[in-house]
User: What shape does this take?
Amino acid sequence: MDISLAQTPWGAVLPLILLGGTGLLVLVLDPVLSPEGRDRLPALSLVGVLATGGAVLSCWPRPQVAFGGMLVTDQFTASCSLIFLLVAALTLLISMGYIRRTGLEHGEYSALLIFATLGMIVMAGSLDLITIFLGLETLSISLYILAGFLREQARSNEAALKYLLLGAFASGFLLYGIAFVYGATGSTNLVRVREVLALGRVHSPLLLTIGMGLLLVGFAFKVAAVPFHMWAPDVYEGAPTTVTAFMIAGTKAAAFAAFLRLLMMGLPALQLEWSRVLWVLAILSMTLGNVVAIAQTQIKRMLAYSSIAHAGYLLVALVTGSKLGSASILFYLVAYTCMNLGAFGVMLALAKGNQERLAIQDYAGLGLRRPVLGAAMALFMFSLAGVPPTAGFMGKLYIFSAAVQTHQIALAVIGVLNSVVSAFYYLRVTVLMYMSPGAPDIPAERTAPALAVALALAALGTLLLGLVPSSFLEAALRSVAPLLG
Amino acid sequence: MIGLLSIVTFLPLVGAVLLLFADRQNEGFIKNGAFIVSLATFFFSLGIYAQFDPAQAGMQLVEQAPWIAWIGAEYHLGVDGISLLLVLLTTFLSAIAILSSYTAVTEYVKEYMVCMLVLETGMLGVFLALDLVLFYVFWEGMLIPMYFLIGIWGGPRRIYATVKFFLYTMAGGVLMLVGIIALYFASGASGTPTFNLLALTRLSLPFATQVWLFLAFAVAFAIKVPMFPFHTWLPDAHVEAPTAGSVILAGVLLKMGTYGFLRFALPLFPDATRYFTPLFAWLAIVGIIYGALVSMVQPDLKKLVAYSSVSHLGFVMLGIFALTSQSVQGAILQMINHGLSTGALFLLVGMLYERRHTRMIEDFGGLARVMPAFTVAFLLVTLSSIGLPGLNGFVGEFLILVGTFRVHALWAVVASSGIILAAVYMLWMFQRVMYGPMTNEQNRNLPDLTTREIAVLVPVLALIVWIGVYPTPFLRTTDASVRQLLQRVQGGAPSAEHENPTGTATGTKVADAELRDGGLRLTLSHSSLSDFAAASERRHGY
Assistant: This one.
């Protein structure tokens, strides 16, 4: 394989260079800056993220292949990248006050977030299993460090270690799967794999099936689908709150983007096989995630289990293997980013000093004492539950439409009933916020400006996607077109 | 140019958004502002009535705009004879409910009024939407303000009641959502798939598909009505809700279920409707008698009225599933009647509660002596609820029973026992509360109705009498649309796989055709028994 930078079109790699450069710049500036200057590093990172977004919009809608067919910058890459950059931007915004308060204000924090985002973009743009793996590792290694960023807290250390061990385990599965697929088809390039499958020139169908199975297990670990979810609640609970928010929305988005690439572009010939496996995973994830979330008393842990359930909904869309299903994944990821980061933002806005409000009970009386914050939290909760007119509802509408379209009625029915179960625990938050006597110690101070901006954006996104989803859906449909090629 | 229907639907929402910016200390302004917005909405809705042409059966004042282009969901509103009266009822009762809560609500007045107005927009949207996705958005979205109304301003067990209400309704709703999606793709079998209700009601789907989809829709609507055995959320929600919440819940929300049957379940799935008619009719009859029997033994006034709703809505359901022109028109009128009389009952119980902070029947007795004006109002409403001729309840129930009797005499006979039971529990309750010796000293100095309370009650009472004495203007609006609906349900093209599923359908068709002429005159003129007799004679003269 000939990988020569000279043949790589600059437009194809400019956003990556911009983003990576921002990360490096932050790292370099960190030790030389005064403490006040260091405070501005997240803002600098934010500028870098926005600039990257601009570069994506101007350079990427044209499909270009870079690095000898390992990376493609089609509409799908562009749209996924914008989702990841949105996650990164919102995370940076909600982080600004948080890292100052908790003493995490090292340049590495912002730099690692940026490198993780870079990894995600590489995953979405991969045309090759090796590049998917590279992106995934870039993402994961950054997150291993970020999860343990609260060095003095045992929980954070535990989270980092657990994530590292199980993440490495999952990476092993993935790598093994890649090896098997290479053995069976003679290539790691997704387009090539698809051709080999289409021509029926597979060396050993058994090897291929095993390889596919291992890949599915690896990805199931990454999206925290049941029964490969055991690490998720502890890691999500122990990691710094902003990092948890980033992981829940970002890792999920990146893993599903790569999942789509792999299954729709590389292995469409095996749809019957993989959709059967994912069918089971989807039902298990939705049901277990929602049922266990009911029993939680910590809001972070509740949202961790709810994120497992949301992975289940996304798997429903993946099972369909259709255009609408793929597009609904993108739509849902945007919706999920808005409502999830919004909910975490409210959590951060209520922290007093170093003490975060983690028990759901702590939210008692919030709604009427802090009307705006309360209304925002209620909006995010209703959206997560999938009640119209919110983004969560529209996302579910498309996912279940895709399921019904491909005659997966049982899956759709189980899915909607699950959203009723989930309504129970999301409602509990609103019940406490509005219908219980208030805790006396809810701080009355104003929300920090950056956090307020993030919350406003998230709330706006949650409402707009619910009320006028048309253009977003069409963008999503255009984006997945290259996958179906 | 924004159409009249959009103005009526979204005016309350605009008012709610404006109220958000009001100073929360200035409660008087907030209350008056909310009332003025709801009153304005009511007057705009009268404009709909003025522009409505009762001779047309189809949708009128239609507004259509693209919404979610790729799947073809539209912003599509329209009104016909089935929805017109319900829209008016909604705007009317919303204004009444807001006026009634001036003193009942003392905490978080701003949030309360915002919830009431948002709720009004949700309800109006449900009655006017002609696109299934849009309908669903209103249908489910409306749960949110109601959830807060019960949960924040309700009684002691409000949290249990409101969560139960939310989850019950949502569980039914999501199954309907799957049904809507399945219907969408089923409609794609013959052309472009669509969410447009008008296009969908022209489809002829295979019988098996119809049965499944009918069930998916029917469960959602049956929970909302609520039909026996899906009614268990209702007593909790009603009892715990604040007075205005109960008024809206009983007055409008329950009608969304029966309306759903008329607007969606019946015309979309005519073959399945005929197939399920006996089941639903008998469930309705069970509900009538069960609701009445349970009402009889309630010690709590509000619970008594709540269970009586189960019974009254049973009549509405029976009227709908008897599938005759009279019975369906009677059912629509009875929806309005129930909204008025049960709404008024909740208002009256709420007024008592504000004075005495109890709703137990045993705590009262002999009130007639200290509260004469209250007694008059209460008596009128009680009699209306029982179905005394000359008041509104009679017209609706009578039409339902007559329409039912013609096709299924047994149903009508069994159901009429519900009327007798209604007289028993209502009059017995009235006697225990109003007459007899004044046993409780606390009742001796109860003040009579205030001017505001009279202002709340008089419009409702006036309508109760008006519909009872001269129902023609109300029935005239429903006639053409109901006829078209029944034509669809009974004369609709038989499905490919299954013709005449139960054997009753043909019988109904013949009976209805025979009676059409006499029936028309009947529906337009039966304000009393003698008119009915005359109409019957004319009919027999043929």
About this structure: The first strand of chain B starts at residue 60 and ends at 68. The two ends of chain B are 52 Å apart (CA to CA).
